[in-house]
Amino acid sequence: MSAWEGEFLGSVEERLQTYGRAFGDPEKGPAGAALSIMQTVKLKEISAKAKGEIPKGRRDLRGRRRDAGETR
């Protein structure tokens, strides 16, 4: 996990505990949701990375699926 990903997880957790949700802009997610749409996507990517999986639909800039060990 990268340093940024660790900070992201920590900040999301802190905001969830403090406010019950991790975003404040209603245009970024459904009312009553704890996470914005993009936060949800990023958490799924981090989870898949931790499991050594490639998130479904993850592609490089040329539209090719990335291999599990491949980096950007």
Describe the structure using short key phrases.
72 residues; mainly alpha; 44% helix
Give an account of the 3D structure.
The chain has 72 residues and is mainly α. It has a domain at 3-51. It is built from 2 helices and no strands. It has helices at residues 3-19, 37-51. The longest helix is centred in the N-terminal third of the chain and has 17 residues, at 3-19. The chain is globular, with a radius of gyration of 14 Å.
Task: Walk me through the topology.
Layout: H1 3-19, H2 37-51
Overall pLDDT, averaged? 81
Sheet of most strands = none
Structural class: mainly alpha
Number of strands: 0
Shape: globular
Radius of gyration: 14 Å
Run of helices and strands = HH
Helix content: 40-55%
Number of helices: 2
Distance between the termini: 14 Å
Strand content: under 5%
Low-confidence stretches: none
Summarize this entry quickly.
About 45% of the residues lie in helices and about 0% in strands. It has about 70 residues and is an all-alpha fold.
